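Appendix B. Raw example, untouched.
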Amino acid sequence: MQHGRSEGRIFHVAPAKVRGEPSKRQAVHESPSLNRKLLLTAILAISMATCDGSGSTTSPGTTSLAFDVTQVELGEGRSSQLGLSNTGSEAVGPIRFVSTPVLDAQGTQVAGASLSVPAGDIATLTPGTSRQITAVVTDEGLLPGRYTAVLSAVVGSAAMATVTLAFDVATLDQPDVASLVITSGPTQVTQGDLVTYRAEARSDGGAVVAGTTVSWFIAPGGVTGLVRADGGFVGYEAGIAKIVAVAGMFADTIEVTVAARNLTGRLDFVSVSGLPNPRGTTDLWVHGTHAYTGTLQTITNGVVAPGNALMVWDISDPTAPVLTDSVVVDARRVNDIKIRDDGTLGVLTHEQSNDGQNGVTILDLTDPAHPTVTSRFTTGLETGVHNVWIEGDIVYVVVDGTGNGMRVLDISDPANPTVVASFSLPSSFLHDIYGRDGLLFLSYWNEGLIILDAGHGIRGGTPANPQFVSRVRTKGGQTHNAWYWPESGYVFVGEENIGTPGIMHVVDASDLNNPVEVATFRVPGQTPHNFWLDEDRGVLYQAWYTKGIRALDVTGGLAGELERQGREITFSLYEGAQPGPTRSWAVQLHEGMLYVSDSSSGLVVLQPQF
């Protein structure tokens, strides 16, 4: 026996044997229901395909849907083409695809498998027409046996058609395998660190048996954590974890000491600067010695405070920012402001304009304390603009409304912007855009996170003509914002779901063609808003509405539930200018200070100390 591990039966229930005559083959205890409960501890949530954002449904009483089959046997590819037909007399939509968890032969939900429809929702299906969809099962790390899942086509809250998908995981035919040995991976780790273990199946003579499928689990009786199908492990708490490798009838266990992460730090309050005419504060952008904040119309005791202005702050002294000017526009909400890297030009957004045109206003920042209006552009933006992103002479504009998507503006002549390209999806609305390294990350609400090539080179896109690269739908939908960190390959994605509430999702985009969600972070009772990443230190600052500013350690590999891993360094529920809770909207790190726009209090300054 090697130090820190036990070969043989997974939970150390050894068979009786005669001293001096050890068994050459150690088998897993063969109680199927017991092994399932002990090994497969993670339960799959029901996978819900999201609606199109319009909120409309069709009454199921006047329509009828049917799959072309009621049961499908999946082969090794674990996918199947299914036909869905509208057999009724009226159009039906939106149609969502909802899957049950994958069940084993005993009816137990299993980890390591899920059923999904990658193409997502069908907006509308007219009478007499049909649509081909692809149902896909992922089944990493399952033990041999029979598995099933049910896929439903749902309209509103009614399942109007169902189909059962079944597949088998074959028993491994490995007559030469005599043992399984975990061959690499540390026995001492730090809470929250992602590490990887490897295992080999060996013959009686100790030779490696190639092609053996290995599954990984955390055995009961130790600390909790996450172990992935590839042998990746992260500990959720300090103590001893028991990592188990299983291949067919053979297993090996390694005991791992997990040390506490023990992070320390604080966010010191520096100042708060309220507005002379109290109104809501929206996004902010800091450049040089000035900060710029948008406004939101509020009504208090019948008194209207307009959201029609951009506020300009001199932050030369962060302990006492000075309001130097404002730019008043036709809007009831100036939601966003971005400043170009050279500091000479800014773009603010209009929503709910009185003239019904909305659009963007381009600012001349020759005097950053006193911006002047260069032009207002409205063509194709009349429904409203929520957010923008600037890359040189190109502005990417988020247009309000389902199906409107993104417009690409050429502002090489700021007085005469022109639309040079667009990108849209018909079934949802776009909320935000983040650009980095020739890539655009579109937070497309219930359509998920969309990645475009805007000069990166992966699809031949250019800044003025972005091209689609890939999409990932994070669990929960309502994709609100994103921050891409090229050095790590991670994208930090906010889910602004007020009701659930939402969480922060981590997407591994190191393979831009196949982004995948790998981790989450939640703060109970509230949903996140906007982020800023200190990439030098690996600290993600998150504005979390009434839960203030959260500072999260995102160094190293990320996996699982980050809030359980000791990764939150500190948080601040600063005292605002107005009575009541904090309402942290956006945050930006600038020259060692954190600038926060608080929707109730104005501009707040904090100083990280760690």
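End of appendix B.
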